[in-house]
Design goal:
2 copies of one chain form a homodimer. With 106 residues, chain A is an all-beta fold. The first copy, chain A, has one domain: Jelly Rolls (Sandwich), CATH 2.60.120. In chain A, strands 1, 2, 3, 4, 6, 9 and 11 form a 7-stranded antiparallel beta sheet that branches. Chain A has a 4-stranded antiparallel beta sheet with strand order 5-10-7-8, with no helix packed on it. In chain A, strand 3 and strand 4 form a beta hairpin. Chain A starts with a strand and ends with a strand. At the A-B interface, strand 1, strand 3 and strand 4 of A face strand 1, strand 3 and strand 4 of B. Strand 1 of chain A pairs antiparallel with strand 1 of chain B, so a sheet runs across the interface. Chains A, B: It is an enzyme of class 2 (transferase). Chains A, B: One of its GO terms (cellular component) is cytosol. Chains A, B: GO terms for molecular function: guanosine phosphorylase activity; purine-nucleoside phosphorylase activity; thymidine phosphorylase activity; uridine phosphorylase activity. Chains A, B: Catalyzes the phosphorolysis of diverse nucleosides, yielding D-ribose 1-phosphate and the respective free bases. Can use uridine, adenosine, guanosine, cytidine, thymidine, inosine and xanthosine as substrates. Also catalyzes the reverse reactions.
Chain lengths: 106, 106
């Protein structure tokens, strides 16, 4: 089951808008200082670069992703996650329905 | 100054996606039970219906809005708000830059 809510968080009211709105997220800080974001990617194929390592948890919808250095696209559905190393990149492909995610920064 | 963050809230991780992604919001519940949402509207002209009365606070960007029964479009910029009665509707027009908002439910 995906994580459906976070309690006791600080949320930034201004969103992060990437790729002309194809990806929109809001930044969260948990009570213990952990940073996360919750967002949506609309149907598109996009490339993201990482600073810190991150885990992308799918909350609803689905995506295909391709990690840097890999030639194999993999599928990720609701309740599933994939990890991306620090200072790397990945492509994400969303078809049909919006992909809802939590980005967990490591 | 617009409200830049909320502390101690519960955030729903799955977003609300309206108008094929032209409007995306996340629902919040404050510690006192108050419900709000934080969202973005991309350039478009959209019509929304209200259930409860609400106040739309602009966090960044700007919009023009037209309340039901009015013939006058009005402008709302960052740090400004407008109120919409319950069981009513309004049009919102966003040009150029994304409009970031907090919807305060009354």
């Amino acid at each position: 089951m995906p994580t459906t809510q976070f309690d006791g968080v600080t949320v930034q009211t201004q969103a992060n808008v990437y790729f002309e709105g194809k990806c929109i997220s809001h930044s969260l800080t948990l009570a213990d200082g952990t940073k996360k974001s919750v967002g949506v990617i609309l149907p598109a194929t996009l490339t993201f670069n990482t600073g810190a390592a991150e885990v992308m948890e799918c909350v609803a919808g689905a995506c295909d992703y391709l990690l840097a250095g890999s030639s194999a696209w993999r599928h990720c559905a609701a309740g599933e996650s994939f990890a991306v190393p620090a200072h790397s990149s990945f492509q994400i492909r969303v078809s049909d329905q919006p992909y809802h995610y939590i980005c967990h920064f490591e």
